[in-house]
Amino acid sequence: MLTLHNWLSFYEKNYVCVGRVTGRFYGEDGLPTPALTQVEAAITRGLEANKLQLQEKQTFPPCNAEWSSARGSRLWCSQKRGFNSSLALASGSLKHACHRLILQFL
What we know:
Strand order of the largest sheet: 1-2
Number of strands: 2
Structural class: mainly alpha
Distance between the termini: 21 Å
Protein name: Cytochrome b5 domain containing 2
Order of helices and strands: HHEEHH
Radius of gyration: 22 Å
Shape: elongated
């Protein structure tokens, strides 16, 4: 839905609206259909989710991972993450960070 929103934003900035196509999103009277209302609601939810995700990423920047046959796996996090990684090992917070890291690779 957000891709559709991005395309529409581009279209509105670069082209002049000359009318609406009757169909799924606009009726013959030119008014929005319930389908358009649902799409707009989904776009609003997606924009809000992106905003929350950005805020979370600023608070908890993603961790880094690498693997080599010589050294094996290595995981490290930025000092800006808001926690000390050595303390995180003892408290279990690193488990949460690793879980998030795994999700990033999926």
